[in-house]
């Protein structure tokens, strides 16, 4: 997943390096920008460091993206009673990332549960990132993170990592579109600090990001290789839902369109679980996109209350008539309730 960028190179000459780190930069060559810290100037030869431009840190779209990711992590790790408030401060040591990957992948990592030392934290991060990279490697996914960048609380690296996990594991969230940030890449070469101003694109359009969602299932195979058999599956699901909806004198003929407003989905859950859903809990005749999303989200909550896993499809995708998302939701119901009367 290649990221477009543009680079503007400025070169700063460094005066005598002092042991105390009180180095100065040749003032006439300075351009307006973030102030370089003493530790930036003590970089080893040919080493590199990336920092987030302060203007991007205050960007509202970037802040919105962070909030979406934080809410998603907290939702996934609710059972572990883990609450993330700040991506930089709460994820750098690998503890939360370990729990998140284990929850998403369903695989337990062989790492110490609690590590206080820097060495232990980096060892945990190494194990977590090796596991993540192993999952993404067959997809030729470019990695914008490392043990050092995560442990040094590099916010851009942390966000890139979380985005890769969210996209790969089809997180039921709506990522803000066209979010980009500016970073300053500092590199020391032949005693001279070089700073490159780089624009990093974090998210693109929802459609493009959906293409990157790599989780494949039976419906992907059907749609890609055996579309003729898809009608057989749809007919089976229609038979299943009508078996129950007919009790309310309702009938489905088109799966993608008739479940898009969430009404039938809510009513179906009540029938499958044998309870009446109060009408004040959802919109019986939704008119706006938001009302339809509310209905589908409410139906998802009912599914979880019934002991089902949280659907990986997003409510917005069902409302937008995404056939695969609707099929996944209904097939999950069929698998769990096919023997219900």
TrEMBL record:
Belongs to the parvin family. The lineage of its organism: Eukaryota, Metazoa, Chordata, Craniata, Vertebrata. It is found in: Cytoplasm, Cytoskeleton; Cytoplasm, Myofibril, Sarcomere, Z line. Gene3D superfamilies: Calponin-like domain (1.10.418.10). One of its GO terms (biological process) is substrate adhesion-dependent cell spreading. The keyword Nucleotide-binding does not apply. Keywords: Actin-binding, Cell adhesion, Cytoplasm, Cytoskeleton, Repeat. Its main location: cytoplasm. Residues 63-170, 231-338 form the Calponin-homology (CH) domain. It holds the Pfam family CH. PANTHER family: BETA-PARVIN, PARVIN. One of its GO terms (cellular component) is actin cytoskeleton. One of its GO terms (molecular function) is actin binding. The keyword Repeat applies. It comes from the Eukaryota. This is Beta-parvin-like isoform X3.
């Amino acid at each position: 997943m290649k990221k477009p960028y543009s680079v503007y190179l400025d070169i700063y000459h460094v005066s005598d390096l002092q042991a105390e780190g009180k180095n100065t930069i040749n003032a006439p060559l300075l351009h307006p920008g973030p102030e370089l810290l003493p530790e930036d100037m003590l970089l080893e030869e040919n080493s590199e460091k990336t920092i987030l431009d302060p203007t991007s840190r205050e960007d509202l779209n970037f802040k919105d993206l962070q909030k979406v990711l934080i809410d998603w992590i907290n939702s996934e790790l609710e059972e572990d009673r883990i609450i993330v408030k700040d991506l930089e401060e709460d994820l750098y040591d690998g503890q939360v990332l370990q729990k998140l990957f284990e929850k998403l992948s369903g695989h337990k990592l062989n790492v110490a549960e609690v590590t206080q030392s820097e060495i232990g934290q980096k060892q945990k991060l190494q194990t977590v990132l090796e596991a993540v990279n192993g999952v993404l490697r067959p997809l030729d996914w470019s990695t914008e993170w490392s043990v050092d960048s995560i442990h040094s609380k590099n916010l851009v690296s942390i966000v890139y990592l979380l985005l890769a996990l969210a996209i790969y594991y089809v997180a039921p969230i709506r990522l803000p579109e066209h979010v980009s940030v500016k970073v300053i890449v500092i590199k020391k070469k032949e005693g001279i600090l070089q700073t490159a101003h780089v624009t990093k694109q974090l998210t693109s359009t929802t459609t493009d990001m959906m293409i990157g969602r790599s989780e494949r299932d039976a419906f992907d195979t059907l749609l890609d290789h055996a579309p003729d058999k898809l009608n057989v599956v749809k007919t089976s699901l229609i038979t299943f839902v009508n078996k129950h909806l007919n009790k309310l004198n309702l009938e489905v003929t088109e799966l993608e369109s008739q479940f898009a407003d969430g009404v039938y989905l809510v009513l179906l859950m009540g029938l499958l679980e044998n309870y009446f859903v109060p009408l004040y809990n959802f919109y019986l005749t939704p008119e706006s996109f938001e009302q339809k999303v509310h209905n589908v989200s409410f139906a998802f909550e009912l599914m979880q209350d019934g002991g089902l896993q949280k659907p990986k499809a997003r409510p917005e995708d069902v409302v937008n008539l995404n056939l695969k998302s609707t099929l996944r939701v209904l097939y999950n119901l069929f698998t769990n309730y096919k023997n219900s009367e």
